[in-house]
Design brief:
heterotrimer, A mainly alpha, B mainly alpha, C alpha+beta, A: mainly alpha, two-stranded antiparallel ribbon, 13 helices, 2 strands, B: mainly alpha, Ferritin, 64% helix, 0% strand
Chain lengths: 312, 258, 98
Amino acid sequence: MEDEKKLAEFQTRLKNGESIEPKDWMPERYRKQLVRMISQHAHSEIVGMLPEGNWITRAPNLRRKMALLAKVQDEAGHGLYLYSAAETLGVDRESMINDLLSGKAKYSSIFNYPTLTWADIGVIGWLVDGAAIVNQTMLAKSSYGPYSRANLRICREENFHKKQGYEIVATLANGTDAQRKMIQESVNRWWWPSLMMFGPTDKDSPNSAELTKWKVKIHSNDDLRQRFVDLTVPQAKAVNITFPDPDLKFNEETGHWEFGEIDWNEFYRVIKGYGPMNRERMNARKKAHEDGRWVREAAEAYAKKKKVLHEN
Amino acid sequence: MAEFDVKTRELLFNYILGIADDRLILGHRLSEWCGHAPIIEEDIAMANIALDCIGEADAFYKLAATFDTEGRSADDLAFLRDSTEFRNVQLSEQPNTDFAWTIARQFFTDAFYVPFFEELAKSSYEELAAPGAKALKEVKYHLRHSREWILRLGDGTEESNSRLQDAVDNLWMYTREFFEFSDSVKLLYELDIVPDNSALLEKWKETVLPVLKDALITIPEDPPYFATGGRNGLHTEHLGHLLAEMQVLPRTYPDAKW
Amino acid sequence: MTKTTEDQWPMWEVFLQSKQGAPHEHAGSLHAPDAEMAIQNARDVYSRRNEAISIWVVRSEDIISTSPSDAGPFFDPATDKIFRYPKFYSIPKGVRGV
């Protein structure tokens, strides 16, 4: 009875656009869905450091090297903000990381694709960050205060990421023949996986309805995907890059770019762990975690010794 | 800009390259950690230090480029020279064997660069003093970071102590190149352009020895041979691999802009 | 909610002062083994773009806060003390700078 009354009050608060704070009463499902979603978002930032990190040591000039390093560093920061936001819901970071490393928790499938050329760094900034920004701009308005604030900070910091990506894309597109070939080949590989980033189509998305009900999500996967395509196609045209989709065409009536069918088999296969890089990504994270254990233990042991010393 | 004769310009070119190469190679090594550090907070900290180092390298390369008789840009100097033309100390190219090696390499470097940039910032040559002053602010923080980690690793657990001891023992022979006061440096010193870096060894010891002692690290005996040659282009085998990776794009596509 | 599980450093709350005279405001949290590392990490994590000229850190477990159920009784009494607000007072028309 009590809970039903609280639930009704909670729904009213959501309806009024109020922000929910850590100590507020919230339904268990709301808490659970948030933890799942925020930790998944955090894991994506951390695993997402790997494909781009792959090119930090090979960036072609000093400016690019610094920009890429700063960008990947930002991703570490964003992972940290998001873990902190999830921690306000009563889960600790270590257990979230354990869930990631054991394969229990998911992260964005896009990072299970390899970065094979320097052009991939431009394309990730342009398409992958572009897609992420569309998503995070929505999440900055989500009903849970700490998550919404984390996303706000992330969006503010990420505005340079997409720009640096597009700058690389444009430079290559206006470069030598080899560079033009490099960028088009990269776009061909990343276009479809980028569209998959928005998740399954609305009718197949099990979590979407509930997240929308809780006002964690405000727009549907398909709406966001469409927004992304509409934004991106003109940017490709501006630098004479094509997308590998024969069905891509502008619909005068709706004012939207129509696109072909996404290969959902590929989408589900990669989610289930069978993308080109799933194993390698997890092995890299596990190795960092294991190799770092003695360092974390050392700092903790030192802190304990000093505390004892201080107290005596 | 100050007027220097041809000989001085050549000496300055090589001298400034030494600083730039030290900072770039160290920054590059640190950047290898990105995504693989012991904890996210440290990932961010190391990337920050790497960014400082590469930014400093960029500033010094730009200055060096103004003395280059071949008219190369800062990027050309970083990406199109061979290992035998790099003038960094061998310490900076030593690999990230583990976190203890990274921290020891950093601490030994920071303990030199803090007093060095303090002196360089007083150079009569303004173009050199300015990046020195800017870098000083950054390396002061680096030293704080590496010193704190030396204490934690040394006085942490048995494992961390033995790993740090191992790193210190292995890297000790690379710690003297910073203080080499060659004839060419001496000429620049006499013009009041650069500091007497041999005089900084005492300061370095004042910084390093007490911290190692507090960290319960046994200070290695001075070996009969200290590594030398980096300032003249002689390196360990590690640098060639580092450069092969770092320079791959500009070398593969010589006519491309990035 | 500070964790002391063997594999996790305790949590700290970070407060940044953005400029002289401004208050320290909550920026977020992080994990660190002790105060010195917490300060260093706070600088690297929350002030990468020169957001701060001064940083406070405090162990998350040391923060005492009101609970949402206090919201009514704890804060309401202040809202009817309108004499604390300048709008409560009227001054003759045309007088400036009060």
